[in-house]
Amino acid sequence: MRIGLITPDPGHPLLAATAALLGARHEVEVLHPGAGAEAAVGAPADVYLLKARTPQALELARALERAGAPVVNSAAATERCQDRTGMAALALGAGLPFAATRTFGSLALLESAPALEWPLVVKSRRSRKDDLVVRLDGPARLRELAPRWGHEPVVTQAFAPNSGWDHKLWVVGDEVFAGVRRSELAAGGGEADPGPGRLPEGWTELALRAGGVFGLDVYGVDVLATGDGAPLIVDVNAFPGIRGQAGAPEALAALALRRAAATPR
């Protein structure tokens, strides 16, 4: 089989390990997201793994889908995870325990909004690398953020009291991997924890359910354990890095082959 990787970074550890596994018996090719649809639709591969979220990457993925090639994740599913307003509406509409989310056209409109309850988590409406994610304990810092972030829409989520650790659930097909990371919103954020041990009851099923709601095959779900222990989803990501998770490359390689074999050609 031919497996295509749509990515600007084929050396990413997850992709490189997956390509090495697949390359033992199959042909693996890399397609840069900016290559243009004409570069692949003439003779598409049997399956594509879409690890890119730029407009050019989504346009390429859509062209490949129209040509009959399966893309993991689909362009539509990838795009659903880029708009945090739509993400919250979809998740809450499906009954997922997702953080209540409000949308503002700018930080200035947020600052002038009545009846705000602090602290607030403020995020860029458009999810992307190095976007805005910050906890604010009052309105004073809004003006400090304005020079860099004042031009774009933002969303807010009420700050949920929690342990200060984010539970990272990564899903590849029907396999769930997990880790714990110090929240970037907590003091001393960033350092990794060895792992969560056994996930709380029902969390694995919750992660798989989220994938069904968003139409995703490879994705991440960020979950907080709130004060009463109930899970609260604060973000869903299409095709995250899943670094350092034993078995993840094998799961991704197997998923790619299943999707290729299941698609009539």
Automatic annotation (TrEMBL):
Fetch the InterPro entries from UniProt: ATP-grasp_RimK-type
Q: Where are the transmembrane segments?
A: none
Query: Which chain positions lie within coiled-coil regions?
Result: none
Q: Which domain of life is it from?
A: Bacteria
Domain called ATP-grasp fold RimK-type: residue spans: 116-244
Cross-referenced PANTHER family: BETA-CITRYLGLUTAMATE SYNTHASE B-RELATED, RIBOSOMAL PROTEIN S6 MODIFICATION PROTEIN
This chain belongs to which protein, by name? ATP-grasp fold RimK-type domain-containing protein
Organism annotation: Streptomyces polychromogenes
